[in-house]
Amino acid sequence: MTQVGHSTARALLHRLAVEQAECRVPSLTAAIVRDGRTAWFGGRGRVGGAAPTAATQYRIGSITKSMVAVVVMRLRDEGVLRLTDPLDEHLPGTELGHLTIAQLLSHTAGLTAEPPTAWWERTPGVPAADLLERLGPGDLKHRPGRRFHYSNVGFAVLGELIARRRGTTWLKALRAEVLDPLGMTATTARPRAPHATGYAVHPWADVVLTEPEHDADAMGPAGQLWSTPHDLARWAIFLGGDTGGVLCPDTLAEMREPAGVDDGDAWTGGFGLGLQLARNGGRRLAGHTGSMPGFLATVWAEPRDGLGALFMANTTAGMTGTLLYDLLDILEEHEPRLPDEWRPVPADPDLLALTGLWHWGPKPYALRMLPERGLSLEPVSGGGRASRFVPQDDGTWLGLDGYYAGETLRVAADHLDLNTFIFTREPYDPAAPVPGGPGDWHA
């Protein structure tokens, strides 16, 4: 399974071994994916008296949410729902009817974090109808859209939405539409052999306590699933862009767009549509963390470099929180990715004539051609508004990112019209439709 060099594999295994030993984790597995395949796998500790393997199951907790979100986005792409729909259009009769599907996916609905039941992670669950009946105005903790507030309850609600729209359970829909097509056949709702037992490790002694495991019922979409390093590696590959036909790549990219941030003294993480986001060492990561009694897991993907990383452990708490970042750093240090070779490509003469220097008022911008007939417009120096554009059938150009995302660029003979802002070859060209100040440049 290892596709990295010996010294790289040794360094990765050493970092994993340090985490397992110093954090006193009963068993710990980790893997790195690169370019659509598992590049490295490691396991430490014991499960049933043997070292864990890529086929050993662990509970993945809230990583479940990212998979449930994919089914919701499939419903959107099919036209069954819109992300702006209020919940009442799909689950009528609840006290949450004014919340939108997008708000639930991005944890910006203001909904309470935990359900109005006994501690749901440690007690048998209640049916969805019972949970929805219990939710009332007091379970709305913030004005919808005001802020990021993580909500397990929100994904329980989304699971029931899937059940209603698909006419089956959320789990059966997930298996038929996502897990089976991706070959994730070892991802299940309850454990199957070989699986790790969930443990709590005593804070002051080297002894363990077995943690509970049960069917969370209505709360299942928030954290029910078990999986293996092998299956979770496929999920990392999916998150990196190889969707296997399960989801439109553009839809997955939409899920990775930040919709809210986890605010604090200094934030480095946020949330898209069902996906957690993190920025670390120049990387833009998308995936999800997971925890349930006796288990911790995380999966990250970096689409830009075709990388992903994951770990799975059977401990309730105590890990460093930097393991995957460190593993990616080790890979970068030992086997940095070579940039793609530069090669000349054919250029449309009309597009080539557009390239070069343009001015937004007195500020110079550079217009460059990108592969696949794209354009980029960015300041020559310093900060400022920068965006990429793709051609449209009507001759205009659509902004992909930055300030001008979704906006229209129109090209004229002597100027660019970018959503009413005029770019000219010379600063404030007096012949432009909207010139600069009156008079001439003067000392």
Key structural traits:
443 residues, alpha+beta, Beta-lactamase, 2 domains, eight-stranded antiparallel sheet, eight-stranded antiparallel β-barrel, 11 helices, 20 strands
Question: What does the model show?
Answer:
The structure is a single chain. Helix content is 25%, strand content 23%. The protein contains eleven helices and 20 strands. It has helices spanning 6-22, 63-77, 101-105, 128-134, 152-166, 170-179, 220-223, 229-239, 249-255, 323-334, 349-354, and strands spanning 27-34, 37-45, 58-59, 199-201, 208-210, 226-227, 260-261, 269-271, 276-280, 283-292, 295-302, 307-313, 356-360, 363-370, 374-379, 387-391, 397-399, 408-411, 415-418, 421-424. The strands form four sheets. The chain has an eight-stranded antiparallel sheet, sandwiched between helices. An eight-stranded antiparallel barrel has the order 13-14-15-16-17-18-19-20. The chain has a two-stranded antiparallel ribbon with strand order 3-6. The model has no long low-confidence stretch (mean pLDDT 94).
